[in-house]
Protein 1
Amino acid sequence: MSEMNNGWETVIGLEIHTQLATKSKIFSGSPTAYGAEPNTQADLVDLGYPGVLPVLNAEAVRMAVKFGLAIGAAITPRSVFARKNYFYPDLPKGYQISQYELPIVGKGSLEVMLDDGSVKVVGITRAHLEEDAGKSQHEGVGVSAIDLNRAGTPLIEIVSEPDMRSAKEAVAYMKKIHMLVRYLGICDGNMQEGSFRCDANVSVRRKGAEKFGTRAELKNLNSFRFVERAINIEVARQIDILEGGGQVVQETRLYDADKDETRSMRSKEEANDYRYFPDPDLLPVVIGEDFLDAVRATLPELPDAKAQRFQSQYGLSAYDAGFLIASGELADYYEAVAALVPSDPKLVANWVMGELSAALNKDGLDITQSRLSAVQFAALLNRIVDDTVSGKLAKEVFEAMWTEGIEADAVIEARGLKQITDPAAIGAVIDEIIAANPKQLADYRSGKDKLFGFFVGQTMKATGGKANPVLLNDLLKQKLAP
Amino acid sequence: MSLTPKQIESIAHLARLELKAEEIPVYTDSLSRIFGLVDELDKAQTAGIEPMAHPLEDQVQRLRPDAVSSPDRRDLYQQNAPQTEGGLYLVPKVIE
Amino acid sequence: MAAQTLADLAKGLRAREYSSLELTRAFLARIERSQPSLNALITVTAESALVEAAAADARLAAGTAGPLTGVPIIHKDIFCTAGVRTTCASKMLSNFVSPYDATLVGKYRDAGAVMLGKANMDEFAMGSSNETSFFGPVKNPWDAAKVPGGSSGGSAAAVAARLAPLATATDTGGSIRQPAALCGVTGLKPTYGRVSRYGMIAFASSLDQAGVITVSAEDAALTLQAMAGFDPRDSTSVDVPVPDYAAELQQPMKGLRIGILTEFFGSGLDPAVEQAVRDSLAVWQKLGATVKEVSLPNLPLSVPTYYVVAPAECSSNLSRFDGVRFGHRCENPKDLLDLYKRSRAEGFGSEVKRRIMTGTYVLSAGYYDAYYLKAQRVRALINQEFRSAFGEVDLLVGPTTPTAAFGLGDKTSDPITMYLNDIYTIGANLAGLPAMSIPCGFVGGLPVGVQLIGPHFAEGRMLAAAHAYQRETDWHLRSPAGWSADFEPSNTGGAA
Ligand SMILES: [Mg+2]
Ligand SMILES: [Zn+2]
């Protein structure tokens, strides 16, 4: 599904920086928690003090390997840290410790489901371990202020092949990676806090052309929405240039969300000779079979496998399964409820995706913060299954449970919402309705079938909506028959 | 191999070293001499030889357990800083 | 006779013939007398030394002292010392107070050694004459018109002038051995990874090695015992057991296979130096060692290899000096680029800048393969040649330097002539081998040294050979005129 603009084709590759959820930094014993007072989480190693040396965090290596295994990539048996040299105030040593020729994770791939339901395979070139930089704040007049708390936070940079053909595809891929790293428990995925960041390499070419066009690298895309906006704006800019007979310049461009534009980054213009070389302070990272096996044993069920299982085990549609596995926590919640409502997993899916999701959304909560436990929620759904409440009234019960924190049975009891399932009771009501509406009865019997609905409505109204709808239907049919 | 003054200027820029005009010919000359010496490496037959980045060939990277061990010592560490404010290091404005 | 070796002084302390305070005061007095003429120290820490000495005396009295407790020591100013200015002999760090101790410094502190001060050196350890120091050159105690060698020139001059029985030092391309030879003292560069680099300000990380300068090989063994060992803070430190070096000193010379390197005896070697080295070989032969010639054909390429690898690593290591978190910052920078360029241009001396530029160039786009990778391949060749040589011999022996000490200013105009002074020492750094220089005679009144190189972690064998030699000779016990050891219990008032 590639997007064509006047015969132009868009080509996109993404570099995603994923902060690894370790307790301490990749090369030092500083904490990695977000939001601390400036420079209180920067030790001598993070500050690049003279004489200090890096020592590699085992957990960062494990997490990187976990990611590699999850995308079916080859794990490099002997990977090497390299220094990327450039001067910038948020880079204390004047070089970033990264990996260059021998990244820890080699080629892999990821299946991404697009809007039209088709599946696209996106190639992943590599993922390498590296340290994050600090942050510059530019508020002051003529000065920038440097906070190095983030410096040294472990990252994997996940580099895709230039396989995406539209901003939407890029976002779908990015969302899939985002879901995956959270499944793996290697990243908290918090984009506001910068735990998951994306740069996009964007170019355009004539439809059918073999060669890629000149690309621009877009920085600072810290939300899914910005990724889509920035790419679309950049594509339009490049097409404008090319159609005007101009040439796209290979450069780094910053997305400015306030102005909704991309602009050339002056600071990056000349910093293009990084003089990578193997870091002599670190030795090759050797990953043996034992290490791989140990990490493999910690891999959770991955999203694609889970979606497949949800379809076969619960009889769900691909769409429903996809919705429910969006996060491991949501999937777990669904399964916990489904286990307690074994007869109707589809009903459970409908309610999780419908009422529950809407309520969570409205209150700005995620599934782990749900006001209803799986047990409480299942109790309600079981009252639908056993015909205690109608589906319609169950929504009222849910509402009360959610806002007032009352158990399902208590709500049903207190509000008298229990369904009427006694045929004699319903029959008596029907008899009264028929007696009170002789004209409608006559019309119905003379062929106005639509009036059946009128009698359903009247009966429901008279029972306060509590009549069992199936029973009501059967009885009405009998009693209305000539 | 000899270098040109222009090369010296661009190297100095990459290395963030300001050179005075009169220093350029001095470094041009001395670096050219150094690379004259370095060019002797061409004599070595290195086909098929793996580059050696490190004297400890059979050593591998050791892994540290993931534990926080560094307490906050900002005030001590910033005693060496030329300019700080509110715990932040100050520099002339960074232009992105 | 005045005690001058670490071994003797430590023995006297433990026997309580004198106190550490007395010893410390005596050496501080010598330092004070030496500073105007030798300039061997950048910082003298007299006050804290007296405090440390008193603490050492308490340990000695309590019977909790170790072999180095109370012994005065000078640290090369490349080692970070908590609360004490650590300059690396650079304007860049002329006001830098380290908030932490180097691992090595901490080990000596824990052992109870008393720090007298910080030794002068070539700026950031880049130099072979100690003339690149921001704090002025060090003079050779044997002849004030001569250089002491470098980069550990202050450490070597200090031990030669008996300002302390030992001084720490570092060796990236000969910076321990060359000044030790030129100052007539014993210099030990251990195997790469044997002594932690943590807290030692990096010059070229894959070559830098901490070591020591002492009067004798026995002293070197004693102090290596305190320095050596695995450090979890240094990923390149090696976790192999530390032997008992004092016991290793007793290894017999009988049957020791000594190799002499063909390449070390070619043109450029002063014939008088050659004679002194050949005379030393006769001593070992007399003790039962065998001598054979071995050749390492690529060894002459060690200098060009070094001048690619070391500057490359240095250009990156010194990028952290940017005027932001520590170190020199220029006045009134007009923007960020100006801050970087002027702070660095003002803070670094010309040799340091030359090496940074050389290294920047060899790593830059288009030159990496031709220079950096090529040099790493030649490094591998040289390493292989050393390995195969050590299949045939136990130790390699040759001159440490081509000549005795040269005159101040003689080699400052052409970097190449200066660099070639390290022609015999660089090979050991490229291959990470332990090596040492011990005094083996005099040429024109100036000391010269013989160099020993061993296989990885063979410090014990090497020290044993040096010790055996020093039992047969007294070159190492000779001190320069005006600087002979004068510390005797009788003239300091005896035990406290
Ligand atoms: Mg990138
Ligand atoms: Zn990156």
Protein 2
Amino acid sequence: MADPQLNLSEPLGEKHSTTCYMCACRCGINVYLKPGENGEKSVRYIEGNRDHPVNQGVLCAKGSAGIMQHYSPARLNAPMKRVGPRGSGEFEEITWEEALTMATDILEPLKEDPKKLAFFTGRDQSQSLTSWWAQQFGTPNYAAHGGFCSVNMAAAGIYTIGGAFWEFGSPDWERTKLFVMFGVAEDHDSNPIKMGIGKLKKNGGRFVSVNPVRTGYSAVADNWLGVRPGTDGLLILSVIHELFRMQKIDLDYLLRYSNAPFLVIDAPGTADHGLIARDKNGVELVWDAKKKKAVPQTTKGVVPHLSSEVTLPKKVKAKPVLMMMAEEYSKPEYAPEAVAGETGIAAETIRGLAAEIAKVAFEEEITIEQEWTDMKGEKHDRFIGRPVSFHAMRGISAHSNGFQTCRALHVLQVLIGSVDCPGGFRSKPSYPKPYTAHPKPHATQHDGAKNGPLAGPHLGYPHGPEDLLLCGEGKPLRIDKAFTWDAPLSAHGMMHMVIANAHAGDPYKIDTLFMYMANMAWNSSMNTRGVIDMLTDKDEDGNYVIPNIIYSDAYRSETVAYADLILPDTTYLERHDCISLLDRPCSEPEAVVDSIRWPVVEPNREVRGFQSVVLDLGARLGLPGMVNEDGTAKYKDYADYMVNHERKPGIGPLAGYRGKDGSKSGRGEPNPDQLERYKENGSFSMTHLPDEALFFKHANKAYQDFAVDMGFFDAPAPVTFNLYSEVMQKFRLAAQGHGDVQPPDRLRDRLELTFNPLPTWYAPFEEERLGDRTDKEFPYHALTQRPAAMYHSWGSQNAWLRQIHTKNPLYVPGAICDEKGLKDGDWAWVSSWHGKIKVEIARMEAVNDKTMWTWNAIGKRRGAWELDKDAPEATKGFLLNHLINELLPPKGDGYRWANSDPVTGQAAWYDLRVNIEKAEADDEVTLPILGEQKRDKAPKEEIRYGLEWTK
Amino acid sequence: MHPALSVIAFTTFSGAGYGLAFVLALGHGNSAALSTKIGWFVVLAMIGGGLLSSTLHLGNPQRAWRAFSQWRSSWLSREGVMAILTFIPLTLLAAMSILADSFNLVLGYIGAIMCMITVYCTAMIYASLRTIPQWHTKWTPACYIAFSVTSGTLIYMAFFGREAGSASNNAWVYLSVVFLVVAWLIKYCWSKNALAAGYGASSMETATGLGNIGKVRLLERPHAMGNYLTDEMAFRVARKHLNKLGWIEVFLGVVLPIVLLLLSLVVGSGLAGFFQVLATISLMAGLFVERWLFFAVAKHAVGLYYGGEEALVPAE
Amino acid sequence: MTTLPASTNKKLGLVIDLDTCVGCHACVINCKEWNTSGYGTALSDQDPYGANPVGSWLNRIHTFEVTPMAHQSKPKGQGVGEVIGTAGEARVVHFPKSCLHCEDAPCVTVCPTGASYKREEDGIVLVDEDKCIGCGLCAWSCAYGAREMDQAEGVMKKCTLCVDRIYNEEMDEIDRQPACVRTCPAGARHFGDFADPNSNVSVLVKERGGFDLMPEQGNKPVNKYLPPRARTDLGEGAAFAAPVDSTEEAGGVLGWIDRALSGSTRSKGAN
Ligand SMILES: Nc1nc2c(c(=O)[nH]1)N[C@H]1C(S)=C(S)[C@@H](COP(=O)(O)OP(=O)(O)OC[C@H]3O[C@@H](n4cnc5c(=O)[nH]c(N)nc54)[C@H](O)[C@@H]3O)O[C@H]1N2
Ligand SMILES: Nc1nc2c(c(=O)[nH]1)N[C@H]1C(S)=C(S)[C@@H](COP(=O)(O)OP(=O)(O)OC[C@H]3O[C@@H](n4cnc5c(=O)[nH]c(N)nc54)[C@H](O)[C@@H]3O)O[C@H]1N2
Ligand code: SF4
Ligand code: SF4
Ligand code: SF4
Ligand code: SF4
Ligand code: SF4
Ligand SMILES: [Mo]
């Protein structure tokens, strides 16, 4: 019998290209729409867009599950007003007009005292709009979620090399031969990292992963270093120790691009101690050994001396930065043997790692024949590359010593000369950008006005204590206390402190908490139960302590239940969005890229894109820039804004297809056809860098000129790599009593310890604060990891993704299991100084022997996300957040010490110390249970998606 | 393997039915006697009912007729075809007995052989599966045939053979005891093999091909909850239940029937029949347990992808 | 038709690289997404938002942990290949699994209805859902767990090797490959014709030592797996790395810096 005849050429339907949104990777997607039986079109298939520079056709699990995300039963249908108590989930649907009037009525009076509004946004990719809105409203209280996410990485990178991993740069995947990754489970650049690992393997390169847990990417690493959490700084400094010892440092590179030769004043006790010596024009001095005198570093032909102490005029002693480093890191305390115990990595392994790095960097050098000119006008025949690349993320940044660890890693890259060279780490334009080219933080109005627009953007990069956001009495200007002595360089704000501070009225009380796309009542907060208590707490008069909460979500998340007014957003296939260079860029090292989303599917509910709503609110409130002279709304909607808004003349949200005819990139007049042009091009624009601009962008003339043309800067902004951070030293000097802006006494010692201008390591605060109790009561570490197939909390409403991670066991090292009599499937109590949870465990061997871990954000509140109240996410899934507090264990000094990095305020999620004991097998339900949220409808019993097309 | 009630019912009942048919078709009974007529009727009901119950677990029973088409390769198809073919002589024999009080030995032999071939085909559905070492042995068809004949014999003896006279009834009792012993010896051999077989030559190491780098264990299931495969094939019963059921199986299936049968020889003729009926019921109950265990102890190779010996027991 | 073709013209199948798979489940979801609206009936999901969500999937990722046995471990203190940190040498391997399109596919021969068949032209094993009675026997016969009964439709589901993509004339040539291969971010999945000794897949198998799953089952799977590649020690062959007895102090380094700079390559303008 012949094989059956099959119809093998079914058409897919209409193809629409847009941008995925399930994570900050922002891949290009093709969405195919096909009519069903009733003629209505629905999504047949979503695939990666091959032409898109980010994902080049591939698509991850979340992106592929877009259909179930888009058609989720947890989607919100219309604006809602709370009718039950906060947390109950009881709402009444209202019209948009009612909702916007309600919001305007709440916000209008706050314009008089704008700080009464706290506007915080979460997983959002439209911060250039939201921050501008908040600036025009005049509140100092704006930030996105970066402060609890990865600001340590971003800030350490910006202050050190003018960029960081993550969105600012990536390994040169095509050429790298050794790739070393610290503390990454998934990351924002997730498809490119996977593609990169694939390429590296194909090219025969080596992949080393430093991570307490060996899953995901680490599972395919050639070498895995199961480091003890919070000790990477020591490990990296030990590698640096070895590089100095082996004399494998790229001196030439350091002389050209870093502050290695700069002279640091050595005058202990004076206000200049530790500052870089400068001439009267402020140019840094270096030592000219021939002339035996200090000369400006810009002097032509000077070969600065690097290795001995010198005396400057007025008998001031000074040392080159590199000499300070050599002295510091040659100390025996950084020797592999000395750090092996603390890090859990054998000395021979650390030596091996350093040797491998040195070997590949210096013996496997690669070159690209391409002429280029540096910023000093010197011409070069080729790009020389050291094919060692690094990548790191929250594993090293989410600790209270994370800033210094991230600094150490960036410094290591500079020492071996692999920043922005072939085979190394490559910046993605508009980066690199020196910290001096970023704005400084702002929290006040122009000329001391009480209200009206802020004088400048909220977030930025302080240069010293004088840039802190403190009022006259030294009190914080911001509700989250960002840019205060508690966290001077909190470049992304401190969203994780907002609810706690607003509840405590410390530093002041607020009226309205306005949030967007952040599940702050659940997985986004430390101490979830505490946060819920704060959100629902009432004062003596029976009013909520935080009076008004307005929230925009697209789904019935936990946080929806705690808000008073809900502004329902669309799904990502139903709205305009803009992935802008003014915001978090999605460029590639060789091209400037930005992209859009547009309504591939029209919403069938009373929902509106939040950005359009925010512009509408802005117009109703008459905020400057959002209204015309006659008081009418300036922008019809977000799409209109994307095309017509200009930050500076010729510079707007989108860089592609500018100018009347769409022929300009970067700078150019608004183009009314811009969005159509984007759509025709797969919803992105791409502007290639000239060939001579591809590497060493920090000091490459062609690149700097290109960047000016594109409008990244108005004048070239080359970067000098800061091995030594003068900014850090300025804060340290203040801690020593120098200068006008002085820290409170309680913080002096801590600033002295943590603001070391050379990368350093100190024990994470939680274990240090617990003292003896650490070893006795909480001997283990507990971590979370992002699952590749789940995006934080919101993947659980996705019928396909939730089948993969329906619940999350705690993975416990075999040795601890044996000691505690635990086996797969047992239940255990896990406790920290702050709390206790009951969870199901699973045994694992390929993990650091002191570390247990689980998947992040699988646990759900009962009834949330339109899941059945008995859904395993709610009965067996759990949050580690219950064990983590936003504050450190009390010290008895009456102060609330944040569980954060002392430099940036980054939440120290991974400092957590725990103990574990077997629990009686009773009902096998996780504890605590935090109430139940009302559901909208009964869950579907079955899905047969696509049935209509398969008959 | 997950024991499906419909399949257990099917194999035990149709097995017993074919066993009874085998006895009757060999010329035992008396075609004119009512009990023999009923016997034939019961035969048809048992194998027909068994067959019907076997379609209960089908996803699309309305297409069951298609199952007769692939007799060249498929034991399931062969079994279906044989079952239908066997109906021909058996229905004829039944009709002859019920309508014409007659019997034909040639047809009987043909029917008897076809009965055993059908039972063999049923057994081969299981025995042919390389994925399940407990089943993939010649002891499987041997067991099926032995239990078919034994249960048929006991049913015949207890319900339909009485008219042949008490002397010969004693002979049937002895024969039953012998069959019971032989069948359970075969079953013992099967069990011994089954217990030792594990996953056969397969292991988590061969399943993954990772044996050359170490010992393999499951860290995470592909999907957190159960699925068709874990429900159907990675099904596991706790060992203590297995042991308990093993004892029940032996007690009901062989110890009690033999005791009752031997007792039936010594008690008065009035009670003998009662004891024989009890013995038969006990055997059938034992066989039900036996068949349940036949599934429950079977280890499917797929289990190796879900944890092997450590398999995370019944999917939640 | 249940009998297997004596030989097939092509042997289409997948190579899965266990050295590269990071276990991201992209292929799993994309497979579901493609196939639920593609060949055969929808891939249903039961209790999708409830206490016991289950569904039909044609491809799943298992995660195994592999711990070297005594004879496989490196002696302590030798090299720094796998022996890392305090956690020993255990490692995690992500393991994607779909139908292997076996040459001696028992799932085909056991099928009583002829619904299961192996295509003569390319070796793809398919289920003709209009014929399938949902007896489940083919799933029992498959050692790899590659077949799943759809609970809503009562028919057997399995990987089709995306037969409705690889020959789909509505698609660009370059996209005529299985959904899971096209979507895999790490490039751990490869599609091709094993009958052609020069095809991409045949070459990979040869070069990387591709192997069969459970060869002892005698199914002759077409799909092959590539083993995790051999690990080598960090810093191997770096002579300069030899540890010194007494840790050299900064002085040594500074001397080196001095010497290095006096002969500086800087003026030559290397980079
Ligand atoms: N699929 C998916 N992708 C996502 C997200 C998601 O939810 N799902 N979330 C996005 C967001 S918001 C973020 S911030 C990024 C974060 O991306 P990642 O930085 O990859 O975030 P984590 O999952 O927190 O992974 C941290 C890793 O660090 C390890 N680790 C913990 N402590 C230490 C340590 O002290 N040292 C070292 N070396 N390692 C350590 C953990 O084991 C874990 O593997 O991912 C983004 N991408
Ligand atoms: N234990 C532990 N906790 C952590 C972390 C950790 O590693 N471990 N990581 C922390 C980090 S880095 C981060 S970034 C946070 C992330 O935590 P969140 O930022 O809270 O992330 P999600 O859980 O994804 O919640 C985002 C909210 O946005 C909503 N949303 C989704 N799509 C849309 C949309 O299109 N429009 C609107 N308006 N809303 C939408 C979702 O429904 C959800 O309520 O978690 C933090 N919490
Ligand atoms: S990595 Fe995945 S979720 Fe993130 S944007 Fe890309 S496809 Fe979407
Ligand atoms: S998509 Fe690729 S890397 Fe991800 S699980 Fe599948 S095979 Fe592995
Ligand atoms: S893997 Fe299983 S379903 Fe696929 S051909 Fe082989 S035996 Fe059949
Ligand atoms: S379930 Fe369908 S395909 Fe499988 S053996 Fe039965 S009839 Fe054949
Ligand atoms: S080939 Fe197609 S059907 Fe098979 S696993 Fe891959 S995507 Fe699924
Ligand atoms: Mo994050």
